[in-house]
Specification:
Bound molecules: arginine, zinc ion
Active site: 378 (proton donor/acceptor)
Structural class: alpha/beta
Shape: globular
Helix content: 25-40%
Subcellular location: Secreted
Order of helices and strands: EHEEHEHHHEEEHEHEEHEEHEHHEH
Largest sheet: 8 strands, mixed
Pfam families: Peptidase_M14 (PF00246), Propep_M14 (PF02244)
Number of helices: 12
GO molecular function: metallocarboxypeptidase activity; zinc ion binding
Strand order of the largest sheet: 5-6-8-7-11-14-12-13
Function: Involved in the digestion of the blood meal.
Length: 416
C-alpha cells in the first residue's frame, strides 16, 4: 500500500487553539418591523459573529456571542425588546465533542483494509481527503483522473477529481465544497458524493454515468486546515491583508464584484479581496471552468447551513430570464432531498429569499461562465447545531446532497 503524508497531529499546541469557552449561540427573534431593524443592527455589531443572517421571510438571526461582549449584546436585546433562545450554552463544549477521531491503530487498520482513511463517521483533515482522491485515481484509472488546478495562498494543491462518462461530448457537472472553511459538512458531503459515483457507480442509474463530473471537494484548503488546527470557526481563506488575515472567497468572484453584502475591510468576515479574483483559489476555479468550453451544464456549490437551495441572482433581487427553469429544477431537487434524508429545503433566488451578497461563485458561474443550472445549496441544519453539526448527521445530510446531484444529472443527461 502507498504511504500517505502523515497526519501532523499536535502541530499547534493546545493553548494556541482559539477557545470558545463560554461563547453562546443565540437565536434571536423579532416580532415587529422595528425589531427587525434592530436585528439588522445586531448582526453587524462589532464582536458579534453572525452565523445566520436575517433572511427575507424569516424573523430570526443566529449570533455567536463571546463572554466579553455578552453584557453589551444582552443589554441591546433588552432595550430593543428582542427575545432569544440560548441554542448552545458553551460552544467550546460542543466543539470538544463534535468530532471523535480514530486512534492511530484504528486509522492504520482502516487504511490497510481500504487503501485510504476516509469515512463518513467523522470530519477528516485535508490529508485524509486528498489521500482518498489519490486512492480513487489509482484504483479506477479507467474513469477517474485527478488534476491539480492551482495552488492556495499557503501552497496547498486544489485537487479536482474528474469522473468520466468516457463518451466524448457528454454534458458536464461542476461541484465544489469547502469555499467556507468552517462549513465542514460540505466537504464531507461532497466526498460522499464522490464515493457513490465511483465505488458504488452502478447503484445510481444511467444518468450519472452519462455525465462528466468535475469535483473540487475543498476549494479553500488553507482555511479548512486552519479550522481543524487553530480556529474551528474560521470562514475565509488565509491571505494576509495588513493586520487581518483572510478574504471571503465567496465574495471574490469577478461578476458584479464588490457590491452589496461584501466588505472592503480586510478584518470583516465578508472581505471581498483587493480586486476580483485577487485570490489564487477563486482564480484557479474560474480559469478551469472557463476552459471547459461550454460542456458544463451545472454549477453546484455546497455550503452550510440553513437548508436552502439558492439560485441566481445573489447580487440583486431580480431573477434571470430562465428563472422558471431554475425554479422548477430547484423544486425537484428539494423533493429528492426530502425523500433521501427527510430534511426540508427551501428553494429561491439567493438575494430575493436570503439576503443580497455580491461576488459569490454562483453569480459568476451564471453571469460570466453562462452555466445554465447554477445553484448554491446550504446543507443542514437550521440552526440547532449550525456549523458544529454532530457526526451522526453526516450520512443523512450527505445522502440528501447525493440526491440533489442525481436530480441534476437526470435533468441534463440527455441535453446536448
Ligand atoms: N451563505 C452564502 C454566502 O453568504 C450564500 C451565497 C448565496 N449566493 C449569493 N450569490 N449571494 O456566501
Ligand atoms: Zn458558506
Amino acid at each position: 500500500l502507498r504511504a500517505h503524508e502523515g497526519r501532523i497531529t499536535p502541530d499547534v499546541a493546545e493553548d494556541a487553539r482559539v477557545s470558545y469557552e463560554g461563547s453562546q449561540l443565540l437565536k434571536v427573534t423579532a416580532r415587529t418591523e422595528g425589531q427587525k431593524e434592530a436585528l439588522h443592527k445586531l448582526q453587524d455589531m462589532e464582536g458579534v459573529d453572525t452565523w445566520l443572517r436575517l433572511a427575507i421571510n424569516s424573523s430570526t438571526v443566529d449570533v455567536l456571542v463571546k463572554p466579553e461582549t455578552a453584557d453589551k449584546v444582552k443589554e441591546f436585546l433588552g432595550s430593543s425588546g428582542l427575545t432569544f433562545d440560548v441554542v448552545i450554552d458553551n460552544l467550546q463544549a460542543a466543539i470538544d465533542t463534535e468530532n471523535p477521531t480514530m486512534s492511530p491503530e484504528e486509522m492504520e487498520e482502516l487504511e490497510g483494509r481500504k487503501g485510504h482513511r476516509m469515512t463518513w463517521q467523522s470530519y477528516h483533515p485535508l490529508a485524509d481527503i486528498h489521500g482518498y482522491l489519490d486512492y480513487l485515481a489509482q484504483t479506477y484509472p479507467q474513469f477517474v483522473t485527478l488534476q491539480t488546478i492551482g495552488t492556495s495562498v499557503e501552497g496547498r494543491p486544489l485537487k479536482v477529481l474528474k469522473i468520466s462518462s468516457n463518451r466524448p461530448g457528454s454534458p458536464a457537472i461542476w461541484i465544489d465544497g469547502g469555499i467556507h472553511a468552517r462549513e465542514w459538512i460540505s466537504p464531507a458531503s461532497v466526498t460522499y458524493i464522490i464515493n457513490e459515483l465511483t465505488e458504488n457507480r452502478d447503484a445510481h442509474g444511467e444518468a450519472v454515468k452519462n455525465v462528466d463530473w468535475y469535483i473540487l471537494p475543498v476549494l479553500n484548503p488553507d482555511g479548512y486546515e486552519y479550522s481543524h488546527r487553530v480556529d474551528r470557526l474560521w470562514r475565509k481563506n488565509r491571505h494576509v491583508n495588513g493586520k487581518c488575515a483572510g478574504t471571503d472567497l465567496n465574495r471574490n468572484f469577478g461578476y458584479k464584484w464588490g457590491g452589496v453584502g461584501s466588505s472592503r475591510e480586510p478584518c470583516q468576515e465578508t472581505f471581498a479581496g483587493s480586486h476580483p479574483f485577487s485570490e489564487p483559489e477563486s482564480a484557479a476555479v474560474s480559469s478551469f471552468i472557463q476552459n471547459q468550453a461550454g460542456s458544463l451544464k451545472v454549477y453546484l456549490s455546497f455550503h452550510s447551513y440553513g437548508q436552502y437551495i439558492l439560485h441566481p441572482w445573489g447580487y440583486i433581487r431580480a431573477v434571470p430570464r430562465d428563472h422558471a427553469d431554475l425554479s422548477r429544477v430547484g423544486r425537484n431537487i428539494a423533493t429528492a432531498m426530502y425523500q433521501a434524508g427527510g430534511a426540508s429545503y427551501t428553494v429561491g433566488g439567493a438575494a430575493a429569499m436570503l439576503y443580497p451578497a455580491a461576488g459569490a461563485s454562483d453569480d459568476w458561474a451564471k453571469g460570466a461562465a453562462r452555466i445554465k443550472y447554477t445553484y448554491t445549496i446550504e446543507l443542514r441544519d437550521r440552526g440547532s447545531f449550525g456549523f458544529i453539526l454532530p457526526v451522526q448527521y453526516i450520512l443523512p445530510t450527505a445522502r440528501e446532497a447525493l440526491a440533489a446531484v442525481k436530480t441534476l444529472a437526470s435533468e441534463i443527461a440527455n441535453v446536448r
